[in-house]
Amino acid sequence: MDQNLPTGGEKLVQCLEREGVEYIFGLSGGAVMPIFDALVDSKIKLILTRHEQGATHMADGYARSTGKPGVVLVTSGPGATNTVTGLLTALMDSAPIIVICGQQILPMLGKDAFQEADVTGITYPVVKHSYLIKEAEDVPRILREAFHLATTGRPGPVLIDLPKDIGQGPCAAPFSDELDLPGYEVPSRAEPDKIVEAARHLSRAKRPLLYVGHGAVIADAGKAVTTLAEKLRAPVVTTLLGKGAVDEMHPLHLGMMGMHGTAYANKAVADCDLIMSIGGRWDDRITGKLDEFCTDAIKIHIDIDPAEFSKIVVPDISILGDARLVIEDLIPQVEMADTAEWLDQCERWRKQFPLKYSKQGGLRAQYVLDRLNAITAGEAIFTTDVGQHQMWAAQFCKARSNRHWISSGGAGTMGFGWPAAIGAAFANPDKKVWAVVGDGGFQMTSMELATAQIHKLKAKCLIINNNFLGMIRQWQEMFYENRLSGADLEGNPDFVKLAQAYGVKAFRIKRSADTDRILEEAHAYDEGPCVVVAEVVKEDNVFPMIPAGGSVGEMLIEAPKHKLQKPTGST
Amino acid sequence: MSAAQTIPTSESNPIHTISLFVNNKPGVLVRVSLVFSRRAFNIESLVVSPAAEGRFARMTITCSGNSGALEQMIKQLAKLVDVVHAVDHTRDDAYETEIALLKLDCAIDERTHILQISEHYKAKVVDYGTDSLILQVYGSSEKLDAFIDLLRPFQLVELVRSGKLLMARGRQLT
C-alpha cells in the first residue's frame, strides 16, 4: 500500500472535517475500527455513547437545534441495526442526520460473516437515501452527496455503509464537490402565478388561518410568517413540531392545534374560511376525521416536497417551494384582510376555553411544566419524548424562538428526549437545554446519563414520573373501560438514586410548594447535567383531546361524564 | 396466478402501466419495489433494461391497485433519489408490445391445429422437437393473452412472458 495515501477511513474523516462536522456521536466495534482510528488525529470530537439508538437521537437533537447535519458512527451488524429507530425518527420529522456504519470486508459480504447485516437492505424504508461504498475512490463523492441530500430540499437521514477493507485500504481519490444526482431536484422559489393566486385568496378571506408546520422551522420561515400574519391580521396555529417558528407569545398566536391542541386553536381551525399550511403535512393528529376537516375552507398548501400535495388533503392551491421564500414572495402581494370580527371571535374562544388543570390533590405535571415555562422565560431549548408529558409540555412550555422546541412527532419515539437534549446541549453550550421526559421513555435511553456526565454537559432532564405509561393508561381509562393492560410501570427505579449512581446531580419534587425552588436551583446548576424527578399524581389525563379519527366537534375540554366509543383512528 | 390468464381488473383496481427512468445502480429495484409493496400494489410485470445511455436504466412496470393511490405512488417513486423521472402511461398514446415463449407437449402428427393458430397470430416456431414445440409470439399483451388461451388445451407445459414494453409516441416522454 502506498504509504503516502490516506486510508479510506482517513479520507472519510477528512471529508467530514471538510463538511464542517464538529461532533460525531457513536459506538465502536470491529468493522468500524479504521474510522475510529482516523478520528484519533482529527479535530472532530468523538462523543462515545452508551447505545447506538442514543447516538442517533443525539445527532438528531444536534441537527434540529442547529439546522446542521448530525453525524453518527457505528459498527456493523447489531451496531447498525440499533440505529433503525433513530433513522425512522429522523425520517418522519425530516431531520438531517448521517449514519455511517462499519461493514464486513467486501469478500465476506453475503456469507453470514461475524457481525454482518445487510444494513442498506434493512434500512431502505427509513432513509432518504443510502450508500454501500464498494470502491475507495467513491468515498469523497459519496460523502459530499450524503451531506447534500441530508440537508437540502426536504431534509432527512442518509446512511453510508463502509466495508472495513475499504476503510483500511488506500484511497487515492481527491476531495470532490461533484454531485452525481440526476434525479434529485431542490425546489426553491415558487411559480409566480401560484403566489398571485394565493395572495388573492388570502386578501379576500374573512376568517383566514395560518397553520405552521415543521417545514417552517426547517426553512426558518418564522419571521416572514409573523410579518405575513400581521399584515393580513390572521391568527396563527402550529403543529407539535411547528412550535417555535413563530413566537408563541405573539398576540396572533393561538397555540398548538390538533389532538391535544388548545381548544381555541381547534375552534379556529374548524371555523376558518381559509387555511394555509406552511410546511405542514396535514398529519392525522392534525386533521382528525378528514370528511369533517375544514370542509368549507379554501386550502393552500406550501411544501418543498411535491409528494405531500394531495397525500392527505387535496389543496385548492399547492405551492412548491422553500417555505421562507414563498412567504417572502407572498408578503408584498397580499392586502390587509377584513378580519376584525374573526380576531374578536378567536379572542373570545381564548378567554372561554383556556388551558386549565386541577391544582388539588397532589403535584400536577401541568403545574410543574407551567412553572418550568415561567422559570426558563422562553429562552431554553426543550426536547421531549412521546406521551402525556410531551403534550403537557407542548401546551404549557411556550417556544419563543426557532429550533427551541424538539420533539419526536411523526414516529413518536420513546427514548428520544434525553439523548436529543444531549445533542442539542453539545451544539448550544450557551443555552439552557431541558429534556422533558416520562418515566417510561426515559428508561429506554437513561444510560446516556453517563454520556452527559463524562462531558460535564449542562443538559437538564425533567422526569415526569407518574409510574405509568400515562397516555396508554389515559386511553385505557377512557376507551377500554379502565381495563389497564401493560400500563403500570411497577418496578421503576428511584430515579434520583439512578442519576446519582452515574454521578449526576439529582433533585426530587414531591410537593407543589417546592416546585419553584427546585426548578430554579436546577436551572441555575452549571457544573454538569442534572436530573429533576417530579413525582406527580399517578392518574391524570391530557385535555383538550380530540379522540383519534374524530372531528373538532368531538373535542373533549375536560374529563367526559359519559362512556366513550373506541376511537376510529389508530393512535 | 397463471400469467396466461387475463389479469383480473376492476374499477377500483385497474391495471396501470408506469415507466421509470432510473440510475443503473444496484439496489434501485429494491427501492422501487418497496414503494409498491408498502401501498399494497401488486406488480404484474416488470421489465428492466439499460437505457440508451448505459448509466441509466428503464423500468416498465404493470401493476394493479387502487386508482386513488396511484398518483401518490408515482410521486413517491419520483421522490426516490435514484429515479430520474416516473411517468404513468395508463391512458397515454404509446406503443406497447410484449414477447412470450410457449412450450407445448405434442407429437409430430398432432401439430396441424397448433401451427394453424400460430400462423394466424404470426407466432414463430423456435424449437422443433420430436415431442415438443417452442413457439415465440410478440404483440400486445391482450393478443398474447388470447393466443395463450387458445393453445392452453394443447398441453401447454411452460410459459415465459417478458412483461410489457412501452414507449411513448412522438415527442412525449417515456
Describe what this molecule looks like in 3D:
The complex is a heterodimer of chains A (571) and B (174). In chain A, the strands form 3 sheets. A 6-stranded parallel sheet of chain A has the order 2-1-3-4-6-5. In chain A, strand 5 (129-132), helix 7 (139-151) and strand 6 form a beta-alpha-beta unit. The N and C termini of chain A lie far apart (57 Å). Chain A is α/β, with parallel strands linked by helices and 571 residues long. The radius of gyration of chain A is 24 Å and the shape is globular. In chain A, helix 12 packs antiparallel against helix 15 (340-352). Chain B has helices spanning 28-38, 67-79, 112-120, 141-151; strands at residues 15-23, 42-50, 56-64, 83-88, 94-105, 124-128, 132-139, 156-161, 165-168. In chain B, strands 5, 6, 7, 8 and 9 form a 5-stranded antiparallel sheet that branches. In chain B, strands 2-3-1-4 form a 4-stranded antiparallel sheet, with helices on one face. Chain A binds chain B through residues 120-121, 124-125, 128-130, 132, 149, 181-184, 305-307, 309-311, and chain B through 22-23, 26-27, 30-31, 34, 38, 56, 71-72, 75-76, 78-85.
